[in-house]
Structures are given as C-alpha cells and as structure tokens.
Amino acid sequence: MPAYRAPRAGAAVSDESPDRAERLGRGAIERSAFLRRSILIAKLHGLRVTGADLHYEGSIALDPDFCELVGLMPLEFVEVWNKNTGARITTYVIHGERGGRGCVLNGAAARTCQVGDEIIIAARADVELDELASIRPRVAIFDEQNRLKQIRELVYRRDPSGRWSIADENPAPLRASNR
Which CATH architecture describes the domain 38-178? Predict the structure, then answer.
C-alpha cells in the first residue's frame, strides 16, 4: 500500500476520495499508538443514596462489599452521576459499614443528592493502547434496595485489522451475601 501524502498547499482535497475512509481509519490507529486513553475500569450502576452528611470531611462512603465487586480502592477518585438531578461530581471512595448496603455522600458532595436518588459511580484509568487487552472493567447493577442484580465483566478485543471492540465475557456469578 502506498504511503499517504498530505496534499500540497492550496490543493483541493476531496472528501470523496476513494481511500479517505482507509486513511482516516489508519490515522486513528496510528495516533492511538502514542496517546493514553481514559478507560472505564469499574462501575456501580443504580445505587440509591442512603445518606448525606454535609459536615463530614468529604468523599462517598460505600459498603466495602460493593467496592470489592468491581475493584474500587479506598481513596480512589470516582465520578458520581445523579440520575435524578443530572448532577455530576468527582470525589473519592471511603469504606462505610460492611454489609449495610450504604451509599453516603459526604461534605460538599452531600449537596448534590437526596436520600433515595439513583446514582452511577464510575472509576477510570489512563492506559496505553497495548494495555487494553489486559483490562477487564467490571459493572455491578443494583436494585432499589441496593441489592446486587447483576455483575458483568467486560473484555476488550482487537480484530486482525486493528479495530477494538468490547464484549461481555462470562458474567461473574452473584455472591450469596449480596442477593
């Protein structure tokens, strides 16, 4: 395949050129080689807020069982998206009471929610493209009482042409303590 050459200055460039799609696709892959990507690594979906403490130091206090399901670490930064209000914040995780199914926003974060609001908590990592195949994001989905409904483990796959896709790879079984 001939190397792509940029058009000379002032030359007309047609969006209809036959190899345009190929050049754009190759360019995206080539650019990816030196860019870090921000990738979802853990998600708690549909948790209900069980408390809010404006006068606590800050953070989101979660049942450690929830954190362990998806691999969230204490003091890890997460994004919190409130499905009821649309509020989006960044805070960090601390462990609350194990087995209590709690989700408590503290400090300034307490102003962004009400008890009963449905939220999504997401963690990300900046990774090199060649690391994607080893990353297995986990998504835990909860019911209205913060009981685990489903847990999914996702996997990145790269086809022979270099395109990435994501698949649900053998959903992890529910643990009896969270049913």
Answer: Beta Barrel (2.40)
